[in-house]
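Subject: for your reference before the review

Hello V.,

The reviewers asked for a structural picture of the protein, and I figured it would be easier to keep everything in one thread rather than splitting it across files. Below is the amino acid sequence we used in the manuscript, unchanged from the supplementary table.
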Amino acid sequence: MTRIPEQALYTAAQVRELDRRAIEDAGIGGYPLMCRAGEAAFRRLRFFWPGGSGRLLVLTGPGNNGGDGYVIARLALEAELPVTLVSAVDSDRLGGDAARARDDWLRAGGEISNFQEQLPGDTGLIVDALLGTGLARPPEGQIATLVNLANAHPAPVFAVDCPTGLDADTGQLLGDVVRASHTSTFVGRKRGLHTGQARAVCGRVHFERLDIPDAVYQGMTPTAFLIERQAVAACLRPRSPVAHKGRHGHVVVLGGDHGMGGAGIMAAEAALRAGAGRVSLLTRTEHVSAALARAPSLLVQGIRRPAQARATLATADVLVVGPGLGQGAWGRRLWRLALDSGRPLVLDADGLNLLARDGRRPPAGSILTPHPGEAGRLLSQSPAELEADRFAAVTALAERYQATVVLKGAGSLIAEPQGVTHVCDAGNAGMAVAGMGDILAGIAGGLRAQGLPEGEAAWVATWLHATAGDLAAREQGQRGLQAPDLLPAVQRLVNPAGERR
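And here is what came back from the structure prediction:
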């Protein structure tokens, strides 16, 4: 798959190096690059604030992020928009390109307002140009106060490069953080803007490449990639006209202990909707009727003694283990049979909890799909420790278990051992309900059974799942969304447009 900077994700340090290359090696120059950033941000904010209702309030701090703010304010002044610039620091202390941007603002007729205890009441849009991507500690003093004033004001906030107070590498909130409606980020996408708590404070993230030539990016290896629709479509190749069910794989789902039958049923149906040729569900006997009523295409077997599962496991291409499995004797025995089978696994829910207790590595080609709590148990960390750096956590899990790992949550991360990390920026808060993980596990199992390598199966499944959630929420709303509501959209998404005619 061809990679282009629009999908590439970098650390803040890498983007600073890209800045240096653009300025020095490509000969763009520091101040022209700052002007490009300010111009791109101004165009973007005018698109989302076309009427210019109220006053544009630009909050500036030290360094080049503040310099970008001066450029934006000058462009607003030249466009005859009402604009006020508030500096959180003594503007005389600015140096380099930021000082030049300040001087151009003053020459254009602008004024600098010093720190204020309240923001102008007629403000229609706030521009956050206080602190950039180099922040390593919570905002302090006047900057922290302005952050809180901006958050308390009814006007929307447009963040320049990165919301003040956000760690651009991890997505962790460092303290008081600006809560933006939109963020324009420059030169390279910062990976921390797309996962974890960043999803609550960045709003819509817009990448502004600033016409940087391709040569600047050569030799700079991104730390991750956003999943793009075209890449997903490339993995979902049209089927042969002479295909038969045996060519599309056999998924076996193990789960559904007493009182948890729905989890296994949802995972099995998701594998069917993802395109698996056959799906068997091994579950408690009391759940057989419900499973067949829900999805008659399933091959359902009631399991009283785990040894009854051996024959079916021997015919499987992939096993989905964990949805509603439980951690009692019945679930533990089925889990051991699955691991001993040597078949690739998709481990979710109690399959992961049992893995954390046992410590064994799953068979080669397996996929783990933990939420932060399950991931924390697998790494012997608290969820808070894990969420402090989701990229480090997913990489550690992939290496420890030598499996592809989907770390679920806002901005799910998918890592392969010694491989590529992907980030899914689809999905919505309506998906924070029971059963969504069962659907994801089933989709991953269905794709794996059809022959996708484990890495592709994991990130394609994650994107399909999240995008189906967005489509379902668009039709039905987020509140009250249920996991099975995703299944019709999943089926539409796995079929290229030409196949649906």
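For the response letter, the relevant points are probably these. The chain has 18 helices and 19 strands. The domain at 229-500 is CATH 3.40.1190.20 (UDP-N-acetylmuramoyl-L-alanine:D-glutamate ligase).

Happy to draft the paragraph if you're swamped.

O.
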